[in-house]
Amino acid sequence: MSMSDAELAAHLAETAGRILLEVRASGVFSPQALGKAGDQTANQFLVHAIHAARPDDGLLSEEMKCDGDRLGKSRVWIVDPVDGTREYGESRQDWAVHVGLAINGVATVGAVALPGAGLVLRSDRPQPVPAPADPLRMLVSRTRPATEAVMVAERLGATLVPMGSAGAKAMAVVRGEADIYLHSGGQYEWDSAAPVAVALAHGLHCSRIDGSPLVYNQEDVYLPDLLICPKPLAAQVLDLVNEAKPA
What we know:
The protein is α/β, with parallel strands linked by helices. It is built from 7 helices and 10 strands.
């Protein structure tokens, strides 16, 4: 059975999520060892499955050494087998599986599985995003809240919502559980490619924190910051980020 790119992304994310739940349910790993075992097991599945289903496409995975082959391709799958390894190891729900497809550097197709919640959010099945709350809710890292995000939240009078993985945070905005995801503490392409594809499909604003586009399949895969929020909030948040930067 042939699948569209979006169907393939969702199927692989969901299947990898099920595998990860099985690994965790085995009960044989410590929390630290569980994260490594889950990462490696899910990565093996995703890498083999993408190579089998889309042999001509490039592939970038957090858990796979990059040989540079992807740089010559216009279609590149970007995956994070376990986004939020710590949360996965601690048996929390705020971790995710990312399967995204960048076409000519743009995060175009994506699926983010939230296995702990039994959900897969996908770029080909957008739902209406609920209106922002009052006061606004801003997502921050549960372990390392970014300075800019805290400062912007104060200026907006926003409530801080600590959460684990980048994918879980981005999907909280998509689902209307929070309103703004502002991150400036360092990330890589696999942290945001699939979530950004899903968020864009849902009509949300996605950019770097200086307002420039998020560009994928670069030689240097460090992509340190992003903003995901409803479009009517974007200009105000970007202005406040600029004001919050140290002189």
